[in-house]
Amino acid sequence: MSSIPPSIFSKIKKCLALSASPNPTEAATAMRQANALMQKYGVTQAAIAQSEIGEAETPSRTLSRDKPAQWEARLVGVIGKAFGCQLMMVGQRQKRGYANEGRYVFVGLKHQAEVAAYTAEVLIRKCKATRAKWLEENFGGLGRGIPGAKAHMTRMGDAFAEGWVVQIHERVHAFANPEGIDAAISAHVCSRTSSDDSFETRGLKKVGNNEKLAAYAGMLAAKDEHLYRPCSRDEESRLLEAR
Q1: DSSP one-letter string for 2-69
Q2: Is 85 buried (19+), middle (13-18) or exposed (0-12) by CB count in 10 A?
């Protein structure tokens, strides 16, 4: 299918769009033209759907020992769901040790994937900054130099961030892709990655009472946050231009 000019796909898509016209004559003519082009060039419905699929990526800001923090993993999962995208995570492995550099790849409808990646970049940065501010306000100057203090603060900070993400998740509904697009996304992912590249997000882990309080504080901190999903291509363009 890669040998077929993009202009042919464009013509077929326009004809298919016109085939939904309320004018019966126009609809029938457009469908005949679409079928004729598809037969001439050997284009299938699956191939048309596949041509709509694209990728966009954003870096992980918490990768450590080749794994992201759970709150960041869950956040990108929530965003992927909101924009109808599947996720891959690509890391840079070294012969010795870990590179601690990786990126999330959103696979979906081209415009949806781009906005999803931008949204992830903004919300990851915001959550991390809010987490750091909360830790400074509640633990700043305390426990420094005490064995185990750093690990304890990390756990509390992560619990806070996970609560922040849970609050965002409560307001998100999965994006309903057009028919055939989910299968096309899965085919795209399978075509370019091995099974160990795929990335599955995890739920909120079991924690102690202190971490529960931190998670609740995170939920309160995110009560006024929203995951903005543009309603039109113009809104998407303005959002990406502001990047």
Answers
A1: TTS-HHHHHHHHHHHHHTT-SSHHHHHHHHHHHHHHHHHHT--HHHHHHTTEEEEEEE-SS-BTTB--
A2: buried
R_g of the chain, CA atoms, integer Å: 22
Helix (H, G, I), strand (E, B) or coil at 188: helix
The answer to whether the beta carbons of residues 38 and 12 sit under 8 Å apart is: yes
What number of other Cβ atoms are within 10 A of residue 12's Cβ?
23
Cα 116 to Cα 85: distance, rounded to the nearest angstrom: 8
pLDDT tens column, 49-71: 888 899 999 998 888 777 888 89
Cα 107 from Cα 240, distance rounded (Å):
17
CA distance 238 to 230: 10
For the segment 139-181, what is each residue's pLDDT rounded down to a tens digit? 776 656 666 677 888 888 989 998 999 888 877 777 878 888 8
Which region, left, alpha or beta, applies to residue 202 given φ > 0 means left and ψ of -120 to 50 means alpha?
beta
CA distance 75 to 146: 32
Distances (CA, A) of 154 to 121, 157, 161: 21, 5, 10
